[in-house]
Design brief:
The complex is a heterodimer of chains A (312) and B (247).
Chain A: E1 7-18, E2 21-32, E3 36-41, H1 47-55, E4 62-67, E5 70-71, H2 76-80, E6 83-86, H3 98-108, H4 116-126, H5 142-154, E7 160-164, H6 172-188, E8 190-195, H7 198-204, E9 207-212, E10 215-221, H8 222-227, E11 233-238, H9 244-248, E12 253-258, E13 263-268, H10 275-285, E14 289-294, H11 299-311
Parallel strand pairs in A: 3-8, 3-9, 6-7, 7-8
Antiparallel strand pairs in A: 1-2, 1-4, 4-5, 9-10, 11-13, 11-14, 12-13
Helix pairs in contact in A: 3-4, 3-5
Chain B: H1 2-14, H2 17-48, H3 57-90, H4 94-99, H5 104-131, H6 141-168, H7 172-191, H8 199-203, H9 205-213, H10 219-246
Helix pairs in contact in B: 1-5, 2-3, 2-5, 3-5, 3-6, 3-7, 3-9, 5-6, 5-10, 6-7, 6-9, 6-10, 9-10
Classes of the chains: A alpha/beta (312), B mainly alpha (247).
Chain lengths: 312, 247
C-alpha cells in the first residue's frame, strides 16, 4: 500500500450525540486510494453511526468530512456522488426486479443515461448476478440480496465504498465470495468496512481501526496488529527431553515452560532466535526434536487485549 | 433526479396487487354512482324541462359525481401516502435515498409527483366516464374543467398532507390513520360549520373545492390549495432534514 496514494476520505473530530448522550467522541479517519480499512469493535461501539455519518445519512454535530476533496456538508451532492454505501440492512425495494432496482440506483447516482446499460452488465458480472436480473428482489435468498446490496453500492464506480457488516448472515461459501469481491474492489477503490469478525479483518483489510465506546483506540496495519503485545517464542516437541536447566542454558532463551512431558514453550527476545542453536544441540544429544511451531497470537487475543487495556 | 424518484414511485405503486384491486373497485364505485345519478336525472328530466333555467346534465349528473369522488379521495389518499416515507423507514430503504447524491427536496417532491401522476390517472378515468355523456347531450365544458382542476388540487393537498404524516412515523398504518383522522376532522369542520365565514371552515380543503364544484374559479381557493401543498411539502422536507440530525 503506497503512502503516496491520494487521500479519498478524511474525517476530522466527528462528534455525534443522540439526545444528551454523546456516542461518538471525536473520531478522525483517513482513507487512501486502493486501501481496505476495517473498522472493528464490539456491538454498540458506534461503528454503524460512524459509517452513516461518512455517507451523509446522519449529520455529525461537529467535525468535518471530506470525500475526494468535497466537503460533505457544503458540497454534499458532489461528495455523495463519490461514495457507495451498503448499510447493515441492505436497502432493497423488495417488490422491484434486480435490473429495475439497479437501474434506479444508477440513475440516483447520476450515471449518464447512455452508460447505464454497460454499468448494469458490468456490475452484475462482478457481483455474480448475471442470471438473476429479472428476478424480484423479495424472492432472492439472503446471500443474493446482499449481493444486490453491494451491486447497488458500486454501480456508479465510486471512489469510496462503505460497507456496514457486509458478510453478516451469509453462509461460509457466500462469505468467501463476498470477501473475494471486496478484496477485488479494494484494488481500484477505497473500501471501508465495519465488522466484528476478526477473520474478516485478517483476510481482507490492509489497515485496522479499533473502535471502543465511540472512540478509536488503536489503528495500524493488520499485520502489525497481529504482533501487538505478542511475545516471540515457539513450542518445541522433544521426544527424549533433557532437564529444564539444560534448555535454559542455551543462549538467548528467556523462559522455558514445560507444557507436557515432551512439549516445551520457549520464549526469547524479539531480536534473537535461539531455535537453530536448540536444534543443533538436540541433534548432538539425541533429544529427538520433532516439531517446532512459532507462537502466533490470534487476532482475537489481540483485540481482547486492546479493548481490555482501554478499560483499565 | 425528481423525475427518477417520481418514476420509481409511480412504478412501484403498480407492482403491488392491492393497487390494481383498488383501481378496479374504484372504477366500479364511480360507475355505480354515475348510473344512479343518471337514472335520477332521466326520471326528472321531463319536469326539469318545464323550468325556465333548467340545470343540464353536467350540473345534475357530473357535478354531484365529482363531489362524491372528492369524498372518496379523502378516504383513499391516506392509503397511498402512508407507504411513501414510513414504509421506506421501516424497511430501512430510506438510507439509500439519504446517502445518494439527491437533496431532501428532490426526494419529497419526487415522491409527491409520483403519487400525483397516479391520482391524476384516477381522476382522468373518472372524467372519461363523464365524457361518455357527450354522446347524448351537450356538455358544459367549463364546469367539467373547473371540476377537474378542483379535484386535482384537492388530491394534491391531501397527498401533501399524507406525505407529511408519513414522514413523521415508522409505521405505515399509523401514518394512514393519522392522515385519515386529520382529513376527516377538516371535513367535519367544513360540514358542521353553521355560517360560511367560519374560520375553521376556511381551513378545510373540501370547502374550497365546493366553489370549483359549482364552476366558480376563485383566486382565493387557488391560493389556498397552493399554500396548503407548499406548507406541507416544506414541512416534510424539514422533517427529512431533521431525520439526519436527530435520529
Amino acid at each position: 500500500m503506497p503512502v503516496t496514494a491520494p487521500i479519498t476520505l478524511s474525517a476530522r473530530n466527528l462528534i455525534r450525540r443522540f439526545g444528551q448522550r454523546e456516542v461518538i467522541h471525536g473520531i478522525s479517519l483517513e482513507l487512501r486510494h486502493g486501501e481496505v480499512l476495517g473498522l472493528l469493535g464490539h456491538n454498540g461501539a458506534g461503528k454503524s453511526t460512524t459509517l452513516q455519518m461518512l455517507t451523509g445519512a446522519l449529520l455529525p454535530h461537529s467535525g468535518e468530512i471530506e470525500i475526494c476533496g468535497f466537503d460533505l456538508t457544503r458540497q454534499s451532492q458532489k461528495a455523495k456522488a463519490q461514495t457507495g454505501f451498503l448499510p447493515e440492512t441492505p436497502p432493497l425495494y423488495r417488490e422491484m426486479s434486480v435490473n429495475d432496482f439497479l437501474i434506479f440506483a444508477a440513475k440516483l447516482h447520476r450515471i449518464p443515461r447512455a452508460q447505464i446499460a454497460d454499468a448494469l452488465t458490468e456490475t452484475k458480472r462482478r457481483c455474480g448476478l448475471q442470471d438473476n436480473g429479472k428476478k424480484i428482489i423479495g424472492t432472492l435468498s439472503k446471500g443474493y440480496q446482499q449481493r444486490v446490496g453491494i451491486a447497488q453500492a458500486i454501480i456508479h464506480q465510486p471512489e469510496v465504498i462503505i460497507l456496514d457488516e457486509p458478510t453478516v448472515g451469509l453462509d461460509p461459501s457466500q462469505i468467501r465470495d463476498i470477501r473475494a469481491l471486496i478484496r477485488e474492489l479494494g484494488n481500484m477503490h477505497s473500501v471501508i468496512l465495519s465488522t466484528h469478525l476478526l477473520g474478516e479483518v485478517e483476510s481482507i483489510c490492509d489497515r485496522v481501526e479499533i473502535m471502543h465506546h465511540g472512540r478509536l483506540i488503536y489503528g495500524d496495519s493488520s499485520t502489525k496488529m497481529q504482533q501487538y503485545g505478542s511475545q516471540s517464542g515457539f513450542i518445541v516437541t522433544l521426544l527424549a527431553p533433557p532437564t529444564l536447566s539444560e534448555l535454559h542454558a542455551i543462549a538467548g532463551i528467556q523462559q522455558v515452560d514445560q507444557l507436557s512431558p515432551t512439549q516445551f514453550r520457549i520464549l526469547h527476545a524479539a531480536n534473537t532466535n535461539p531455535s537453530a542453536a536448540l536444534l543443533a544441540l538436540a541433534a548432538q544429544h539425541g533429544w529427538q526434536a520433532e516439531q517446532l511451531v512459532p507462537l502466533q497470537t490470534r487476532l482475537e487475543d489481540v483485540f481482547m487485549q486492546i479493548t481490555q487495556d482501554e478499560k483499565l | 433526479m425528481i423525475l427518477t424518484i417520481a418514476h420509481k414511485e409511480f412504478r412501484s405503486l403498480f407492482s403491488i396487487p392491492s393497487t390494481w384491486l383498488i383501481l378496479g373497485a374504484l372504477q366500479f364505485i364511480f360507475a355505480w354512482f354515475f348510473f344512479a345519478r343518471l337514472d335520477v336525472f332521466l326520471q326528472v328530466q321531463s319536469q326539469l324541462a318545464q323550468l325556465a333555467n333548467a340545470p343540464g346534465a353536467t350540473l345534475a349528473v357530473a357535478a354531484p359525481l365529482f363531489g362524491t369522488i372528492a369524498l372518496i379521495l379523502m378516504m383513499l389518499i391516506p392509503i397511498f401516502t402512508m407507504r411513501l416515507i414510513a414504509e421506506e423507514r421501516r424497511n430501512q430503504t430510506l438510507t439509500l435515498l439519504m446517502s445518494a447524491p439527491v437533496s431532501d427536496t428532490h426526494i419529497v417532491v419526487g415522491k409527491f409527483i409520483g403519487l400525483m401522476l397516479f391520482l391524476l390517472l384516477i381522476i382522468a378515468s373518472c372524467m372519461l366516464m363523464v365524457l361518455t355523456l357527450a354522446a347524448g347531450t351537450q356538455l358544459d365544458t367549463g364546469l367539467l374543467l373547473t371540476n377537474a382542476l378542483g379535484l386535482m388540487l384537492l388530491a394534491a393537498s391531501y397527498a401533501a398532507l399524507g406525505l407529511y404524516i408519513s414522514s413523521l412515523t415508522k409505521q405505515p398504518v399509523v401514518a394512514a390513520i393519522g392522515a385519515l383522522a386529520i382529513l376527516f376532522g377538516l371535513w367535519l369542520a367544513d360540514v358542521s360549520a353553521v355560517d360560511n365565514n367560519n374560520t375553521w371552515r376556511a381551513l378545510a380543503p373540501t370547502s374550497h373545492f365546493q366553489n370549483f364544484n359549482i364552476g366558480l374559479l376563485n383566486i382565493i381557493d387557488l391560493m389556498f390549495f397552493l399554500l396548503f401543498c407548499t406548507v406541507f411539502l416544506l414541512l416534510t422536507i424539514r422533517r427529512l432534514h431533521n431525520n439526519r440530525i436527530y435520529s
